[in-house]
Amino acid sequence: MVRTALSILSGNAAASLVLLVRNLLIARLIPVADYGVAATFAIVVSLLEMASALGLQQQIVQSKRGDDPDFQAALQGFQLLRGVVSGGIMVALAGPAADFMGMPEATWAYRVLAVIPVLNAMQHFDIHRLNREMAFGPLIATSLVPAIVSLALVWPLARWFGDWQVMLWALVIQAVLMTAVSHVTARRRWRLRLDRSVMIGALRFGWPLLLNSILLFAVFNGDRVIVARELGPAALGIFSMGVTLTLTPTLVLGKTAQNFFLPQFTRAGDA
Q1: Which end of the chain is less congested by CB atoms within 10 angstroms, N or C?
Q2: CA-CA distances (angstroms) from residue 144 to 161, 171, 255?
Q3: DSSP structural state of residue 187
Q4: Predicted confidence (pLDDT) per residue in 142-162, tens digit
Q5: Which residues make Cβ contacts (< 8 Å) with residue 73, sequence separation at least 6?
Q6: Angle between helices 69-100 and 32-51 (to 10 degrees)
Q7: Distances (CA, A) of 83 to 31, 54, 108, 121, 190
């Protein structure tokens, strides 16, 4: 049990460390103001995820039907529908969001970011279902491998673009690879279903998590939004790096605790 907890912790820590190094490298290779624009991409992606966070990944671990292939297909179908809706909203609101942030030149980039929730929604839920068996390798690989590749591509991207586009394409490439790795490590064929009863149950399960996500977004990103709007991209770049350096350890521990204890609580509830 201790070995499992340590493997999850080390995997999450390694992925977070790689992403931290990637962000530091990008901050070093592009101007501070450009890094500030890039920092708004993380805000936008967090907002999209927050607005549709229904805990479907947690539900497949916690539910008694978690091993049912039809239930998994229904959750995957609902997840994809959610991702497409989130992406469509982002495309529609890209202009107003860029204007609000005081960065109208990034409008097209915000539209490109709309592909990320769609890609994330296409991930195979086996990486979460296997947690029920205390098998965390696929989940760790889905985080770690794309992070490493994303880091490796920073230098070529910086040579090619030399501005905030480095972060934009690093995020898109990371999302593509996360989806690809989740399918490569899956044991089941990826299937999609739209089941009204499952969607209603997921909404009942997830609405408290949605409220919690809104609160967490305000806590983790509210100050960044204020800095971006009032002080501009250069100040946001410096502020965001400070927040990243101090917040990363807490996020790693929180994610590890959730990965490790949720299957334990599920088994205890079934006993």
Answers
A1: C
A2: 25, 14, 14
A3: S
A4: 989 999 999 999 999 999 998
A5: 191, 192, 193
A6: 140
A7: 32, 11, 19, 5, 16
Tokens of 80: 């994809």
Q: CA-CA distance, 184 to 189, in Å (whole number)?
A: 10
CA–CA separation, 213 and 221 (whole Å): 11
Q: Which residues contact 93 (CB under 8 A, 6 or more apart)?
A: none
pLDDT in tens, 219-269: 666 667 677 666 667 676 666 666 666 665 555 555 555 554 455 545 544
Calculate helix-pair angle for 233-270, 32-51, nearest 10 degrees.
Answer: 30
Q: Which of 12, 25, 3 is nearest to 166 (CA)?
A: 25
Rounded Cα distance, 165 and 109, in Å: 8
pTM as predicted: 0.80
Residue among 269, 270, 16, 265 at smallest CA distance from 134: 265
Q: What is the C-alpha to C-alpha distance for residues 185 and 4, in angstroms, rounded to an integer?
A: 19
Residue 268 and residue 64 in contact, taking contact as beta carbons nearer than 8 Å: no
**Cα–Cα nearest to 124, from 171, 192, 68:** 192
What is the distance between the alpha carbons of residues 241 and 121, in angstroms, rounded to a whole number? 28
Nearest to 11 by CA among 131, 170, 143, 188: 143
Q: Name the nearest CA neighbour of 98 among 37, 167, 169.
A: 37
Q: What's the burial of 4, exposed, middle or buried (CB within 10 Å: 0-12/13-18/19+)?
A: middle
